[in-house]
Specification:
It is a single chain. The protein is of the alpha+beta class and 292 residues long. Helix content is 20%, strand content 35%. The protein has two domains: 3-127 and 264-291, Probable inorganic polyphosphate/atp-NAD kinase, domain 1 (Rossmann fold); 129-260, Sandwich (Tumour Suppressor Smad4), CATH 2.60.200. Helix 1 runs parallel beside helix 4. The protein is globular and about 55 Å long.
């Protein structure tokens, strides 16, 4: 098995656990490859991975069987940029806080790697979004796993976003911004803006205004197929366009086309993991707050 490792900086309290993770990975792959920035962190913090090969471009992962992403959900979002359309499964190890995508806790790493060895894992194919903007470049990865959002910049003025689906007018949204969320992103920014929880695997998107001026503008769930066209306007002539955590300056009047990507992110899960159990554990569904 060929394993790649991507990660972010972590608290000193996780040092021993990270050392153990690296040792277990080395048992499965004698020569794992480590993302270059994370390799420097490991070398500086604990003198580990000094002699391990590193990767710096997505092409370096060609032929790999697994990407272990050590961090929070943002680390898994970055992992999508590395694996792209190669169908390399991502195993998210949580050293952050909530951890919907990085769903393997530090204390479960032995269970997780034993399950990988025994083949007792299952894979979710997570829908992703593709974005095109007239007259604007979005880099070499114009895709998003969680959401695409148009937001106002540093101003009190609202943004007006006109939305069409397959050339059929949907609505004009007057708000602080507008989120187009995947089922994966339904537990992220969209949730904080009052959007619904959507079970992964559902072929739908959620259009969700942020602090809408018209209170009857509620989140809208639509089929994932088809093309969304978003056009922002307002008192200001520039807005923010975000693809997950990547930000771009969007000129007013430019057409933003959102479609489903031609590939999916493969997320690795353990046998006992499922969406409803994760939501109950992370969001305390059904828990009496007096019992916390």
């Amino acid at each position: 098995m060929k394993i790649a490792i991507h990660g972010k900086t972590f608290k000193p309290e996780f040092d021993d656990a990270i050392k153990h993770i690296l040792a277990r990975i080395k048992e499965l792959d004698p020569a794992p490859i480590v993302e270059s920035n994370f390799k420097r962190i490991l070398d500086d913090r604990m003198g580990r991975a000094k002699d391990w090969p590193s990767f710096e471009t997505p092409d370096d992962l060609e032929g790999y069987d697994l990407l272990v992403a050590i961090g929070g959900d943002g680390t898994v979002l970055e992992a999508a940029i590395w694996v792209r359309d190669r169908e390399i499964p991502v195993l998210g190890v949580n050293t952050g806080r909530l951890g919907f995508l990085s769903n393997v806790g530090i204390e479960e790493i032995d269970l997780a790697l034993d399950a990988v060895t025994a083949g007792k894992v299952w894979f979710e194919q997570r829908l992703m979004l593709q974005v095109e903007v007239d007259g604007m470049e979005l880099g070499d990865f114009p895709f998003a796993l969680n959401e695409v959002a148009i937001m106002k910049r540093d101003t009190s003025s609202m943004v007006t976003v006109e939305v069409l689906r397959d050339d059929v007018f949907v609505n004009n949204y007057w708000a602080d911004g507008l989120i187009v969320s995947t089922p994966t992103g339904s537990t992220a920014y969209s949730l904080s803006a009052g959007g619904p929880l959507v079970m992964p695997g559902s072929e739908v998107l959620c259009i969700n205004p942020v602090a809408p001026h018209n209170l009857n503008n509620r989140p809208l769930v639509i089929p994932a197929d088809g093309e969304l066209q978003l056009v922002a306007d307002g008192r200001e002539n520039q807005f923010l366009l975000s693809l997950d955590s990547r930000m771009f300056i969007l000129d007013g009047g430019r057409k933003v086309k959102v479609t489903t990507a031609p590939f999916r992110l493969f997320l690795m899960n353990l046998e006992h993991q499922e969406f409803f159990g994760t939501v109950r554990a992370k969001m305390h569904w059904g828990m009496d707050p007096r019992d916390r």
